[in-house]
Amino acid sequence: MLEYIILGLLMEGDMSGYEMKKTIDMSVGLFYKASFGSLYPALKRLADKKWVSVTEEEGSTKNKKIYSLLPAGRSSFLLWLKEPLEHSRNEFLLKVFFYDYLDEPTRNFRLGEYQEKLNQEIGRLQAVEEVVEGELSQIPNPENHYFRVSVLSYGKHFFNMEKEYIERLLKGAASKHE
Questions:
Q1: In terms of CB atoms within 10 Å, which of 9, 69, 82, 111 comes out highest?
Q2: Of 81, 72, 67, 31, which Cα lies nearest the Cα of 50?
Q3: What is the 3-state secondary structure (H, E, C) of the chain?
Q4: Which of 15, 78, 68 is nearest to 46 (CA)?
Q5: What is the pLDDT of residues 26-70, one digit of tens each?
Q6: What is the pTM of this model?
């Protein structure tokens, strides 16, 4: 999956590994986490396949490498993008399915902990949304980014839905023991 994310980013233009990581964190990081430890091996695999090229930035004292999309990489990315959409598995729901086996204090702690993570993600997405709105107001064709921006909206709705679900679980578990 990471290889296709990289190819998609390079559809926008050449980037360094650092710029890719930063872009991933601020965009698809909503639903996909990537570390430098996974990013650089993926870039090497793509270079080995001749899907991306690597050049050292001129005048850089830090041997900064710039990655560019090659025609074979563009073709592979577009073929992948045309494949049918698939519903992914969700470990969160799998664990909740078995939460009847957990003791109540641990269950409530884990649900509360997850609820706090959701609150942080919702806050982060609201901050990103403000930045995106500002950026979109300054570009000539903001409608060309419709699907990209729709993922941000999906993320906000998704995290709010999960937050409401957790609240119902906690209330339901509390009323079950009254």
A1: 69
A2: 72
A3: CHHHHHHHHHCCCCEEHHHHHHHHHHCHHHCCCCCHHHHHHHHHHHHHCCCEEEEECCCCCCCCEEEEECHHHHHHHHHHHHCCCCCCCCHHHHHHHCHHHCCHHHHHHHHHHHHHHHHHHHHHHHHHHHHHHHHHCCCCCHHHHHHHHHHHHHHHHHHHHHHHHHHHHHHHHHHHCC
A4: 68
A5: 878 777 888 999 999 999 999 999 999 999 877 766 778 999 999
A6: 0.69
